[in-house]
């Protein structure tokens, strides 16, 4: 366990909020004075996934209380990706239309998309994916409803207990809801994710998926005994991080935003990329895509990680024709076999940095470049991105030279087939403030914006 005092400022009673991110490996916490956005302290503790996640949370709270004497730490807000996070299945009509739209919306909602189907549903394959939630899409508003209704009937009789978010053709929504609820399924209707061809509307489904996660999923993962943990969780970690990234880009209450921003989160099992981009209006008008680009989005690369997916990094890098040191095969195999492995020498530390650089480079390519194949997309133009933020333990625990080397690899990837940032400043979320800001954004947006500006946004002024 580690805790760090950041500021000697002490808030008045009940002005401190503890923001906790319960991950699969580590539980991280930040203490924020919500009257001014000051970061008071941070800490981390191994997630006590084998017993009760609150064991680790409570141990961390006790240590934070010890370095913040007299501060009321009873207000705790949490997000979680423990227990596999939010596992989402997407059921759509056509692969290149509603299934793809649902897939993009699911990622923006902080889900790990474990199954995508298009056309008539194969319920056996769906059940095998063990989703926590099903997103049922299909048809534009007023368009074809036949497949949507067929799939609703299949879900009604399927041996599947997962709640179903209904986000398809609005004209059939009532009938779909009646079919599912009559069969005893939990169905939550919301707006169509693709109301018209080329128009993607992610916000209503994202809100509904968050609600489902809180009401139906987090309490059923067996992470904690009793209702206390479920009561403190406000959403899935990636969903709240994207909220923090959006707030950083936009600003709030007179606190200026940074403009376009990209976040690269290199984890043990996945590498996630978040981006908030303002498209050029003329360019956006010219790009009449079947499924509109989500300019505020997240992608998840499940084969790119520092431990569980280390071998995937090596394979993906070679597939992308990136140079891979010969010694990295054995290093990746060692990490995959022992996800708790910690480097014991400078050489092993270098191997971690090399894996991180390759994971970041491949993840950025996949996030931003045009797709080739069945699903066509013009990709994302990131040339005007002002700020690139690295995240994940490999960067948080590295010195500035190692951090710069990892991020530099992706930001100088001119052979990757994507439009990379031209003049971006780079930094690392060393104090977990993106998740904390996402947790505070609804009730304390100005404090959250100040927190982000102080610890990430000022990089634009200093260049570091």
Topology:
Elements: E1 2-5, E2 16-22, E3 26-33, E4 38-46, H1 53-67, E5 76-80, E6 86-92, H2 95-108, E7 111-118, H3 123-128, E8 133-136, H4 146-157, E9 164-166, H5 173-182, E10 187-189, H6 203-217, H7 228-232, E11 233-236, H8 237-250, E12 251-252, E13 255-256, E14 261-266, E15 271-276, H9 281-286, E16 296-301, H10 310-319, H11 328-337, H12 346-368, E17 387-391, H13 393-396, H14 400-411, E18 425-428, H15 433-440, H16 445-457, H17 459-462
Parallel strand pairs: 2-5, 5-11, 6-7, 6-8, 8-9, 9-10, 14-17, 17-18
Antiparallel strand pairs: 1-4, 2-3, 3-4, 12-13, 14-15, 15-16
Total number of distinct structural domains = 3
State the strand order across the main sheet: 1-4-3-2-5-11
Instruction: Give the CA-based shape.
Output: globular
Q: How large a portion of the residues is in β-strands, by DSSP E?
A: 15-25%
**Subunit organisation of the chains:** single chain
Total number of strands: 18
Mean pLDDT over all positions: 90
By CATH, the topology of the largest domain is Nucleotidyltransferase, domain 5
Radius of gyration: 22 Å
Number of helices: 17
Shape-level CATH architecture of the largest domain: 2-Layer Sandwich
CATH class of the largest domain: Alpha Beta
Structural class: alpha/beta
Largest sheet: 6 strands, mixed
First-residue to last-residue Cα separation? 28 Å
The helix content is 25-40%
